[in-house]
Write a structure and sequence with these properties.
It is a single chain. By secondary structure, the chain is of the alpha/beta class. The protein has two domains: 152 residues, Rossmann fold, CATH 3.40.50.1000; 65 residues, Putative phosphatase, domain 2 (DNA polymerase, domain 1, Orthogonal Bundle). Helices cover 43% and strands 11% of the residues. It is built from ten helices and six strands, in the order E-H-H-H-H-H-E-H-E-H-H-E-H-E-H-E. A six-stranded parallel β-sheet has the order 3-2-1-4-5-6. Helix 10 links the parallel strand 5 and strand 6. The longest helix has 15 residues. The radius of gyration is 17 Å and the shape is globular. 43% of the residues are buried.
């Protein structure tokens, strides 16, 4: 069992496998705007970052504003999620089952750079929202321990979101473990004074290690393995 008081899960790429869809859409929107970009380019450059920051960078590269870019991207994303709900990340359901089966499991929550609407859509589509039912009332989500950077107005790699989640859940930062899959998320967790387990995948292990991950894993199944 993970030795902590609170597990803070990132959403995209840790619980729900949204990254292939969102990065493909982001690359397509950027290409249509005049900046040719592959899906891998989007992953390498933008994964884990705030969308407003991404748009600002695209505008700087193109030397012109991109009105409507975010609206177009988000509309396509929600349409994609509705048409083909993204699945859980491999091992995520099994890890949650493992935590549910233990009477000494730490509390858990979700903390994401994305807006609440996106988290609700992805977690509901993956049939995971009920797994974060909670006896607190964080923000505007009665009964669910879900936190968005939009709630605090500061995005990863800044630590504010993780500190807000820990404070609301009643846990000291040094008693938290964050599970992340992006370098920016790892940096945010370390700045918050938290341990961070990084799930390597679209972001490769060396980049996560360089960002300061306490531990790097290649599968969530590793977190269910008994300690050696």
């Amino acid at each position: 069992m993970l030795d902590c008081a609170l597990i803070i899960f990132d959403c995209d790429g840790v619980l729900v496998d949204t990254e292939p869809t969102t990065n493909a859409l982001l690359a397509a929107c950027a290409t249509e705007a005049g900046l040719p970009m592959s899906v891998q380019d989007s992953i390498n450059t933008f994964k884990g970052r705030d969308l407003n920051e991404i748009v600002s960078e695209l505008e700087a590269r193109l030397a012109r504003p991109l009105p409507g870019f975010l609206d177009t991207f988000r509309a396509r994303m929600f349409e994609a999620f509705e048409t083909s709900p993204p699945p859980p990340v491999a091992g995520a359901m099994e890890l949650l089952d493992h935590l549910d089966a233990s009477p000494t499991a730490p509390r858990r929550c979700v903390a994401s750079n994305g807006p609440v609407k996106k988290m609700l859509a992805s977690l509901t589509g993956a049939r995971m929202l009920h797994r974060f039912a909670c006896d607190i009332t964080p923000g505007h989500l009665d009964g669910h321990a879900i936190f968005s950077a939009y709630d605090v107005g500061v995005w990863k790699p800044e630590p504010d979101l993780f500190l807000h989640a820990a404070r609301t859940m009643g846990a000291d930062p040094d008693a938290c473990i964050v599970i992340e899959d992006s370098a920016s998320g790892v940096v945010a967790a370390r700045r918050a004074g938290m341990r961070v387990i990084a799930l390597a995948g679209l972001t490769h292990a060396p980049a996560l290690q360089d960002a300061g991950a306490t531990r790097v894993i290649s599968s969530l199944d590793e977190l269910r393995a008994p300690p050696r």
